[in-house]
Amino acid sequence: MPDKILKISNDVSWERPTFVAFLVTLVIAALSTSVWWQVSKNEIDFMRRLVEDEAQIIKVAVSDKVKLAVIALERMAQRWEVRGGTPYKEWQVDAQHYVEDFVALTTVEWVDNTYHIRWVEPQAGNENAIGLSIVFDEDRKKALDGASQKDTVTLTPPIDLVQGYKGVIAYLPIHIGDRFEGFIVGIYDVEKFLNTILEDAVFDDYHVTVADGDKTVFSSPIDTSIVEQLSSHVDMDLFGRTWSITVTPRDQFISENRTQLPEMIFMIGVLFSFLVGAIICILMVSFMQRHILTKQTRRLIDSEARIQTILDNTVDGMITINDHGIIQSFNHACEAIFGYEADEVIGRNIKILMPEPYHSEHDGYIKNYNETQKAKIIGIGREVQGRRSDGSVFPMDLAVSKVDTADGVVFSGILRDISELKKAQQELLSKTRSLETAEEIAQLGHWSYNVETHDVFWSDQIYKIHGVTKEDYTPDISTAIDFYHP
Questions:
Q1: pLDDT at position 296
Q2: pTM, two decimal places
Q3: Distance separating alpha carbons of residues 290 and 225, to the nearest angstrom
Q4: From CA 370, how far away is CA 354, in angstroms rounded?
Q5: pLDDT of amino acid 1
């Protein structure tokens, strides 16, 4: 059976199952790749939304803080306008408070309507600024003239100040009635201002830049790699100027927000695709093997049925036994010869079909053969005796052969009941003896001649009549005639 299974496995073509398994694996792998791509995209979109949200938060924070810082100066200008002027001491105290409260507000000035600095706070370090004109050129004068005619704040673009930092100057015009009284001027350290707004945690995850047009107002340090593909840009209006904020995530932000889920999905999908492909391949091969095995089994059954039909309809009896003497098959002719049905003897010892002494000695015969492998009757036809179901004994011709199978040794026997032949032989012998007795009494003899073989037969009485013996004379047709025709 293992040899048959091996042959079936070799006969099965693996090309079709392998091709189908490959297609299934490819489809599932493609689906896994698609899912991996979608999940990865969703993660990137999620991180991009986080960056966009952070940019909006920074925008609101910067806008609110700038407006809050400028509103304080607006109040100074409004008090000046309402009261028709502000005493220096009172103005100085307010200016000192604002400088103390707003870290980024470095200097507060009052510039008169001729564009000269009259008051400044703090005074330390700014003594030389008092009386200084802020009109540097004609363009500057035009810009100040335009600012003086407004009722709102005018914010300058970032300026590199002599104090060594980048500053932004806010001009708040003062009007008493229709008369221009000058400006309340606030000078802000932009870097210090934005550093106070943005916490260190923001800089840990993001690189932030603030620009006024093409001029950079602020840029946080770049001490780690950034991912520019996820940058988010927002614009905000500050008193007529447009500031743009760019927020770019750092690697730390990416590593904190990216999961291993896409890679896990991809790996699981690939492994699953190979597993499903292998299972499909094995199932298809198994199905094909089972189909082939079924076909071969049917052929085997049909073949066995044909052989059994032949055996059942043959004239001679046929019996098979194993190496322990157990009957395995028993055809119809045997049923007729022995008087047993096949079901009655299959599975029983062959010696039930033997008279004594063979009945008792048969197990010894098989044992001796199994031990010595020396055959005494295998391959030799001979006359033996059998025993029928009614106990009667009869003569039969038996030929035994040995067959080696995968299940072990099988002995097959072909036998024929020769009872009638023996009876006919006995009757012929009896008649022959009666004839010889009659010839001896009558002193008559007989002879015969076979025209085909030219053999001449003399009865015993003929030899006596002619006074010769069988040892001395062998008759033939020519010499025999001489006895009768001299």
A1: 78
A2: 0.52
A3: 62
A4: 20
A5: 46
